[in-house]
Specification:
The structure holds two protein chains of two kinds.
Chain A lengths: L1 H4 L5 H26 L5 H4 L4 E4 L8 E6 L2 E7 L2 H9 L23 H4 L7 E5 L10 E4 L4 E3 L6 E2 L5 E3 L11 E5 L2 E4 L1
Antiparallel strand pairs in A: 1-10, 2-3, 3-4, 5-6, 6-7, 7-8, 9-10
Chain B lengths: L11 H9 L2 H10 L2 E3 L8 H20 L9 H10 L4 H29 L7 H23 L4 H12 L8 H9 L6 H30 L17 E3 H26 L29 H9 L3 H16 L1 H4 L11 H22 L5 H27 L9 H6 L1 H9 L8
Antiparallel strand pairs in B: 1-2
Helix pairs in contact in B: 3-5, 3-9, 3-10, 4-5, 5-6, 5-10, 6-7, 6-9, 11-12, 11-14, 11-15, 14-15
The chains are: A alpha+beta, B mainly alpha.
């Protein structure tokens, strides 16, 4: 039936396609609110910040604060922890990116890029395992850093993934020192 | 849903109604006179048991919602209120919580029965796929229901499972935030899980209707796997199979009640009686027992994306079973090699379940890797090759012959005008 292919489109064909197109656009426009309602709303998005007094945190102690529903650990690292993190060659790291919200996205995962700038004993990190979101336990595991009890991920003293299923180093949140004894997270 | 209805109501009111909505005829042809193979064993009663469990879960669930508060700061206490204050609240909650476990016990038996007797083979492929869709919906419903009491296991189970989606390249993080409605599992997550937990059982009920419809086109498979050839191969559904199903159900209910009244928390976790704490992960997170084999597969792969792909792949491969099994013979009773591989597979599945509950270290990890490889090997290599190399045993000529022996079958076959017992 080669002839039928040559038949000119009629006004009815045009109306049929135009109606379908408008219907499809309308459907998409209605579907979007039903999808987007599940995203965080403005109150959740409002980037809440937390101020923490760190003056009382002695060397070798940690404090955990809640930020955006997640635990953020602030640790005053010991000299051994700092040197252990500094001595780890970058080639041994599973994830060579710093994952530091205060630095460019491609910064390498050196200890200097993970710890607080100019205050290498201070260490601030979102204490959430990058595997499936459990909270790793501090000062445990093979590297005396963090160890996730859920699926066995091992992090070093700079929160960098060394063993186990987690793909990334734990995240460093955006933060700043307001004074020597006070930091603001977020 | 199949065959011509012989329903012929005498009551004038029923006659009037039937002419306008022939639902009586539908029920009559589907559940009264429907011809079932006469040799069905008790493994075939689990379909009816599952239908009962779905109704029981919906009934207890609807009642529990009358006393439950879906809010992150109130949910845990409202569940404690159900346990301590609401009249018979303890009973309703234990029925519902243990009911979920019993539902999964029944569905796993039902699935393994299908695998043993080849119930997924031509012409029942669509029936099998619909069953797998029900299984997926059940897992989603069970998971979201376990989050609602807002205990520690609820919270951290929800965190771990939703984080599975963060393994998706590029958009993973966005999807997880979209699922949570925030930056962690919180009130928004609890509310949407509650809404979906209420919705999904009704979607299951819808797919169950399609499942029964698809069953009633070819009719039930049977222990011989030989198709129904003659009317003497079958018996009417009522009273033969209604009674058999009812007896199986009562035995099953004894087990159910034993758990509800004597071991109500046996299949749960003590950590879930601690209110959710976003700052502390329990020392040992374990999902509900019915997810353990898949959880073991997830943990056995030392890569996040790889683990997630294998876990979902372990379920996806079940959908493909009708096309992976190349043997024309349905029942494992006549497949000497498949029968052995089937039982090895059962042991592997149970072994994975055990490993899923063990801590993720040392020999447990190695064992779960070996069993994970075997799980996929069974479906992707053994099933396709076995059909080509295995020499099946001789099949009985008919279902009747398998029940009554060759001589009896020959007599009835030689007397086609013999009066039917009906």
């Amino acid at each position: 039936m080669a002839q039928s292919a040559a038949v000119e489109p009629t006004r009815r064909d045009f109306l049929y396609i135009a109606t379908g197109a408008v219907g499809a656009v309308g459907l998409a426009a209605v579907v979007w609110p039903f999808i987007d309602q599940m995203n965080p709303d403005a109150s959740a998005l409002a980037l809440a910040s937390t101020e923490v007094d760190i003056g009382s945190i002695q060397t070798g102690e940690s404090v955990t604060v809640k930020w955006r529903g997640k635990p953020v650990v602030i640790r005053n690292r010991t000299a051994e922890e700092v040197s252990a993190a500094k001595d780890a060659p970058l080639s041994e790291l599973k994830d060579p990116i710093a994952r530091n919200g205060n630095l460019p996205a491609d910064a390498p995962a050196t200890d200097a890029n993970r710890a607080a700038t100019g205050k290498e004993n201070w260490f601030v990190m979102v204490n959430v395992c990058t595997h499936l979101g459990c909270i790793p336990l501090g000062q445990q595991g093979e590297y005396s850093g963090w160890f996730c009890p859920c699926h066995g991920s091992v992090y070093d003293t700079a929160g960098r993934i060394r063993k186990g299923p987690a793909p990334e180093n734990m995240a460093i949140p955006v933060y700043s020192f307001l004074s020597d004894t006070k930091i603001k997270i977020g | 849903m199949a065959g011509h209805s012989t329903y012929n109501p005498q009551n004038p009111l029923l006659k009037w109604f039937e002419a306008r909505l022939p639902i009586g005829g539908l029920i009559h042809s589907s559940f009264i006179v429907f011809p079932n193979p006469r040799n069905l064993n008790y493994w075939w009663t689990f379909g009816g048991i599952l239908a009962f469990m779905l109704v029981a879960q919906i009934a207890t669930g609807v009642v529990l919602v009358m006393h439950y508060t879906p809010h992150a700061s109130l949910a845990f206490n409202s569940v404690e209120g159900i346990m301590r204050d609401v009249n018979y609240g303890w009973l309703l909650r234990y029925l519902h919580a243990n009911g979920a476990s019993m539902f999964f016990i029944a569905v796993y038996i039902h699935i393994f029965r299908g695998l043993y007797y080849g119930s997924y083979k031509n012409p029942r492929e669509v029936l099998w796929v619909l069953g797998m869709i029900i299984f997926l919906l059940m897992m989603a419903t069970g998971f979201m229901g376990y989050v609602l009491p807002w205990g520690q296991m609820s919270f951290w189970g929800a965190t771990v499972i939703t984080n599975l989606f963060s393994a998706i390249p590029l958009v993973g993080e966005k999807i997880v935030i979209w699922l949570w409605g925030g930056f962690s599992v919180d009130n928004a997550t609890l509310n949407r899980f509650f809404s979906l937990h209420y919705l999904l059982p009704f979607m299951i009920a819808g797919v169950v209707i399609l499942h029964i419809w698809a069953l009633h086109i070819p009719g039930s498979n049977n222990p011989t796997g030989v198709s129904v050839k003659d009317k003497q191969d079958t018996l009417p559904f009522h009273p033969y199979f209604t009674v058999k199903d009812a007896f199986g159900l009562v035995c099953f209910l004894i087990l159910y009640c034993w758990f509800v009244f004597y071991l109500p928390n046996y299949m749960g976790h003590a950590d879930n009686y601690i209110e959710a704490n976003p700052l502390v992960t329990p020392a040992h997170i374990v999902p509900e027992w019915y997810f353990l084999p898949f959880y073991a597969i997830l943990r056995s792969i030392p890569s996040k994306l790889g683990g997630v792909i294998c876990m979902f792949g372990a379920i996806a491969v079940l959908f493909a079973v009708p096309w992976l099994d190349t043997s024309k013979v349905r029942s494992a009773n006549f497949r000497p090699l498949y029968r052995q591989f089937f039982w090895i597979f059962v042991a592997v599945a149970i072994g994975l379940g055990y490993l899923g509950s063990a801590p993720p270290e040392g020999g447990y990890v190695i064992a779960s890797r070996i069993l994970t490889v075997y799980y996929f090997f069974h479906f992707l290599v053994i099933l396709p090759l076995l059909g080509l190399f295995e020499k099946p045993l001789p099949l009985p000529a008919s279902i009747t012959e398998s029940v009554l022996g060759k001589g009896a079958a020959a007599v009835t076959a030689g007397a086609p005008s013999a009066p039917q017992t009906k």
